[in-house]
Design a protein that fits this description.
The structure holds two protein chains of two kinds.
Chain A (H helix, E strand, L loop, with lengths): L1 H7 L7 H22 L5 H23 L7 H31 L4
Helix pairs in contact in A: 2-3
Chain B lengths: L1 H7 L15 H30 L9 H30 L3 H32 L12 H33 L5 H26 L6
The chains are: A mainly alpha, B mainly alpha.
């Protein structure tokens, strides 16, 4: 049956067990985030840990669930460096200004 | 003739072949996801900006119900991503019936997310008196950024539910190929991924301790 072979040719990469492991890792990282929210950490450390965990979670979702780990490298290189560059540019342009407005506040 | 042509094309960039080895639907969805990621990062940055620039930013999210609800919502989305990946997996193996069931499970997770989130919104609106333009703490930007960010995300979830419903219906009737399910899966995982940033930055950073 031609339809079946056409559908079967996409099979590659991860197995069900891998998906379960990734899901479990994502749940654990979410649990750590919620736990840390009540640990009274200094805000800079807390924010850094939160963003670090979020980036790791995003990377896991992109690599395994969105299958990018098993695609050609050219697809990744076309999509992501540009995205990261745009985000970094936005950060560089806008974020210093937000703290400047805090410093200029009348005391 | 075609044999001669393919023999001449030594480089993947010479044309006539897909340099990314993905079909055009999948590549189109990836491009949409990247542009949508920029939309969300701009909104998250606007939120971070006004938050940094506002000294008395409110932290109204009590452990119960807000943080508990948003944690369960995160669980719903993460689990629906797992079922979506299983649906794509089943479809890749030509098992349409299982694929439909997995996609329906994914939709159940997404619907759970929307119901809990609407409940959480109503709790904020009725009990904490937060609206997009006003709140008791005198920081209207809190409601503005909160409802803009979570509202745009919830819109994406609802669109995803409709999208997955159409895909499940078509797959059940023997239409659509495995790649179509995979493309809808890409969209769903992206919605999940965005929540992985909104949940800590909006909810956990504003938890009432």
């Amino acid at each position: 049956m031609s339809l079946h072979t056409e559908e079967a040719e996409h099979i590659s990469g991860a197995t069900t067990r891998t998906f379960l492991n990734v899901w479990f890792a994502l749940l654990i990282m979410t649990g750590v985030e919620v736990f840390l929210a009540y640990e009274q950490l200094p805000v800079v450390i807390f924010l850094t840990v939160l963003l670090g965990l979020s980036v790791i979670k995003a990377a896991l979702i992109i690599a395994y669930f969105m299958h990018l780990k098993f695609e050609k490298l050219s697809l990744f290189l076309t999509l992501f460096p540009m995205l990261i560059l745009c985000i970094v540019l936005m950060l560089l342009i806008f974020m210093p200004d937000s703290s400047r407005s805090m410093l200029m506040r009348p005391r | 003739m075609s044999e001669v042509n393919t023999a001449q094309l030594t480089s993947v960039w010479a044309g006539g072949r897909s340099p990314y080895a993905v079909n055009s639907k999948k590549f189109g969805m990836w491009l949409f996801i990247i542009s949508d990621a920029l939309t969300f990062s701009a909104l998250l940055m606007a939120y971070t900006y006004v938050r940094l620039a506002t000294p008395n930013w409110p932290t109204p999210f009590h452990f119960s119900p807000s943080i508990i609800f948003s944690t369960i919502m995160t669980f719903c989305l993460l689990s629906s991503s797992l079922t979506m990946v299983m649906g794509v997996h089943a479809m890749n193996h030509g098992n349409r019936k299982a694929a439909v069931l997995w996609i329906l499970a994914t939709m159940a997770g997404g619907a759970g997310f929307v119901v809990l989130h609407l409940n959480e919104w109503l709790n904020l609106i009725h009990n904490e008196h937060v609206t997009p333009f006003d709140n008791p703490w005198g920081v209207p930007l809190f409601g503005g950024t909160f409802f803009a960010l979570t509202g745009l995300h919830m819109t994406h979830v609802i669109i995803g539910l409709i999208y997955l419903g159409i895909v499940a219906f078509a797959v059940g009737r023997g239409k659509f190929k495995a790649e179509d399910v995979e493309v809808s899966g890409l969209y769903w995982h992206f919605v999940d991924l965005v929540w992985m940033f909104i949940f800590p930055l909006v909810y956990l950073m504003s938890a009432k301790i």
